UniProtKB/TrEMBL annotation:
Alphabetic keyword roster: Iron, Metal-binding, Monooxygenase, Oxidoreductase
NCBIfam families cross-referenced by the UniProt entry: PRK14056.1 (NF010657)
Protein name stated in the entry: Phenylalanine 4-monooxygenase
Family listed: Belongs to the biopterin-dependent aromatic amino acid hydroxylase family.
Domain Biopterin-dependent aromatic amino acid hydroxylase family profile: start-end pairs: 1-261
This protein's record includes keyword Metal-binding: yes
Source taxonomy: Bacteria, Pseudomonadati, Bacteroidota, Flavobacteriia, Flavobacteriales
Record organism: Zunongwangia atlantica 22II14-10F7
Enzyme kind, highest EC tier: oxidoreductase
């Protein structure tokens, strides 16, 4: 995909399994109406956010080159983001949480390149370029926050998901698309809303991914900074919502000091949030993140970590105390006295050390799965990994020797040793056998006729995490979206309205146009009575160029406010911005 877009050094580091989500921005697809929506939201936001956002926001707007007048071109943004060590890519709406976070780990900002419809100008449940470009991008100019974001991605992409998480993700993605699409039948939205509600209310044991997703939401997306009594906005969801950026600071929204307890607070992506969390500073975010990471299987390993991987039914990795890593789909664990004593994967499996696949131990060598004992030998206090060459010889663990190994808990390995593999510290990490049988009491785990048996060495499992140790070991180019964003229909009436928006834009920029402002307004009144945004733009220009038209358009807007109370405040803000601009220019 990078071959079809303008790349740079940061994007070139992205592995293929992340590149599969990238799509070209196709800047020419943005319509004049899209540009007007961007301009309205940005003008309104920047004026208001200059008073209530964290100081890094306005500084970041300048540093990232984001204009108020035009939807940002991502390739232009990339040239500027490069100076702060980041890059941006376009994607189609929501992508899986693990992929989203892994992009962050590579210092890459994921931007949904679509833009909200005029009807959803205050808030959209779907990620869009206003949310991502005007919300996320400016704040990463703060170095401390940018490092939090990168570190969050690095840890978050290792969080273990559940099959339930995937169901919820797919349902929410579909709901956000339907809510943002024009003309979706209410009964269709209601049906998917019911499904989302049922899934969210289903009693399941929360996964690591669900917990860290909550922490991401209450910081990166909907975070406040300062004190509960005097908070400032830094979360992208608030920075990009002209409705919620105001309502979030009222007493109607509860303010809670941010702590690790936020991981238990679920959220509804389609509605304004009833409570928000306030961090005293950006450094505190990193403290909470590390506190959460200490609870993850990534750092704890053990029996619970293996069970999380089995329950996830997804590709994961465990790491032995010797550093040997086993990646695959884990299907079984045998335990003894609360500890794992044998693990088994199913299907393609790969072995690695320090995130690099071991030569001769990729998925072609382990096509049917991999099983190995864990722990110490029975009656011997010294673990195999801690044995010196003299100890190994004494216990007959030596090349070309027939050996019988009995582990604590009842696993036995009998066979002829072919060779052993050592790590950089000289500890044995893997022992290969021929003519080998492995049993758990009377249960056969491996037969001699199955070929070479490779036994991992390690007295304990120190880590368990989602995904492979070496992403080159598996074919991860499997992304197929169950739903894609829905584009507006290009009707004759819609095309005419876009032409009118373009004419006004050209007039503002001093370009030739086939319509006068008066002509545009006359057509709007006659054929596009549901539109209000373009009239506010005509009013803004008429104040400077045609006082008579300015009075007519303002009267029209005021009548429209009375007829359409649901958008009266948006029209009022449009009038206010036009008059403020005139005063400031004088």
């Amino acid at each position: 995909m990078l071959n079809s877009i303008e790349s740079n050094e940061i994007l070139n580091r992205l592995p293929a399994h992340l590149q599969q989500y990238i799509k070209p921005q196709n800047y020419e697809d943005y319509t004049p109406i899209n540009q007007a929506v961007w301009r309205y939201v940005m003008r309104k936001n920047v004026e208001y956010l200059s008073k209530v956002a964290h100081r890094s926001y306005l500084d970041g707007l300048k540093q990232t080159g984001i204009s108020i007048e035009h939807i940002p071109n991502m390739y232009g943004m990339n040239r500027i983001l490069k100076a702060i060590g980041w890059a941006a890519v376009a994607v189609d709406g929501f992508i899986p949480p693990a992929a989203f976070m892994e992009f962050q780990a590579y210092n890459v900002l994921v931007i949904a390149s679509d833009i909200r419809q005029l009807e959803n100008i205050e808030y959209t449940p779907a990620p869009d370029i206003i949310h991502e470009g005007a919300g996320h991008a400016p704040i990463i100019a703060n170095p401390e926050y940018a490092e939090y974001l990168r570190r969050f991605g690095e840890i978050g992409c290792k969080a273990i998901s559940s099959s339930h998480d995937y169901e919820v993700y797919e349902a929410i993605r579909k709901l956000s698309i339907l809510k943002e699409a024009e003309g979706t039948p209410p009964e269709e939205i209601s049906k998917i809303e019911k499904l989302v509600e049922e899934l969210q209310q289903k009693e399941v044991i929360p996964s690591e991914m669900s917990f860290i997703r909550n922490l991401h939401w209450w910081t990166v997306e909907y975070g406040l900074i300062g004190t509960p009594e005097d908070p400032k906005i830094y979360g992208a969801g608030l920075l990009s919502s002209i409705g919620e950026s105001k309502s979030c600071l009222t007493d109607k929204v509860k303010k809670i000091p941010y702590s690790i307890e936020a991981m238990h607070q679920e959220f509804d992506i389609t509605k304004p949030q009833p409570q928000l969390y306030v961090t005293p500073d950006f450094a505190h975010l990193s403290l909470v993140l590390e506190e959460f990471a200490n609870k993850m299987a990534l750092r704890k390993g053990g029996l619970s970590g293996i069970k999380k991987l089995i329950d996830s039914k997804g590709l994961g990795t465990i790491e032995f105390s010797t550093g040997l890593q086993v990646s695959g789909n884990f299907e079984n664990v045998i335990e003894f006295e609360g500890k794992p004593i044998y693990i088994q994967t199913k299907g393609k499996t790969a072995l690695a050390y320090r995130e690099k696949e071991l030569v001769g131990h990729g998925t072609k060598s382990h096509t049917e799965g991999f099983g190995s004992p864990i722990g110490k030998l029975k009656g011997i206090n010294l673990a195999i990994e801690d044995m010196s060459p003299r100890d190994l010889k004494a216990y007959n663990i030596y090349e070309a020797e027939n050996v019988s190994l009995e582990f604590e808990g009842g696993i036995t390995v009998n066979g002829e040793i072919i060779t052993g593999t050592r790590n950089l510290q000289g500890k044995i990490t893997l022992i290969s056998f021929k003519n080998c049988s492995v049993k758990y009491f009377d249960q056969i785990l491996f037969k001699p006729e199955w070929g070479q048996y490779d036994m991992a060495v390690g007295k304990e499992i120190v880590s368990a995490f989602a995904g492979p140790a070496d992403h080159h070991s598996f074919d991860l180019i499997t992304h197929k979206t169950s739903s894609t964003t829905i584009k507006s229909d290009k009707t004759v009436k819609r095309t005419e309205l876009e032409d009118l928006y373009e004419a006004v834009r050209n007039f503002r920029e001093g370009k030739n146009t086939k319509y006068s402002l008066q002509a545009v307004f006359d057509i709007l009144k006659k054929d596009h009575q549901e539109d209000w945004l373009l009239t506010t733009e005509i009013y803004e220009l008429a104040l400077e160029h045609d006082p008579k038209l300015a009075k007519i358009t303002k009267d029209y807007l005021e009548k429209l406010q009375q007829k359409r109370s649901n958008i009266a405040h948006l029209i009022e803000d449009g009038i206010s911005m036009a008059e403020t601009k005139l005063v400031s220019e004088k």
